[in-house]
Amino acid sequence: CEKEPSSYMWIYILLGNMLRGIGETPITPLGISYLDDFAKEENVPVYVACLHTIAMMGPMFGFLLGSLCAKLYVDIGFVDLGSITITPQDSRWVGAWWLGFLIGGATSFLSAIPFCFLPKSLKKPEEANKDKISCGLLENTVIRQKKKKWQKDFYTSLKKVLGNRMYFTFLCCSLLQFSGFIGFLTYKPKYMEQQYGQSTSKSNFLIGMTSLPPVGLGIFLGGLIMKKYKMGIIGATKFSFTMSFLAYAISFLHFFVGCDNYVVAGMTVSYE
């Protein structure tokens, strides 16, 4: 085409995802800190496991919602659906991708309303106060000091954290794990579409039902096991290493699963 239609919709999607990320960021770190401060020590693993399990349910329902939206034509509500001659199995079909953003955004907004009714401060349990310094006596002094040298304190704390070999190793390990998991979820739908001839709707449905629920179940069971055996730092490390090693060993089976490449005229075979 000499003139391709230009659209700036990607800018709105970029800004929307950026704002969504800013809003989602405090939930995990502050939520875990909240649980650690106001829950009994032996119950923290279960509560954190519940938090992560619920977080895994979001992508699962997202894939199911994506499966539903992919069955609907992109211009639903603006065109006569009876005049559309192609089906979701056709490569020219475009699903109503924008509908998922509206439903997800409205749901996120409604779920955020209860956070507005949380108290600004809570009284810590007496059991937690025994081992932790109370902030009430030093509150004014600490606030004044932080206002003056918050930048210096931040960089000093960041340097200490990154200088901790155990934490830095754990951070690198987590980055590798999430990178592999995200790549798996990103390309698996396209692989199922190309290799097995499935529609986008069915691919999203299968991934939402088979890939994510076992992960959430595993996180919840891990929290229960840690609570039952009251694992400390060393016990939790050994437990994590054992489970991760088994998971990676089983993941090697993916190298033995595959299909022959599709026959594409002009690429894998000649036009004749």
From TrEMBL:
Report the protein name in the record: Solute carrier organic anion transporter family member
UniProt organism field: Lanius ludovicianus
Q: Name one GO molecular function term.
A: bile acid transmembrane transporter activity
Keyword Transferase assigned to the entry: answer is no
**Which NCBIfam families does the record match to this protein?**
oat
Q: May I have one GO cellular component term?
A: basolateral plasma membrane
Where, subcellularly, is it found?
Answer: Cell membrane; Membrane
GO annotation terms (biological process): monoatomic ion transport; sodium-independent organic anion transport
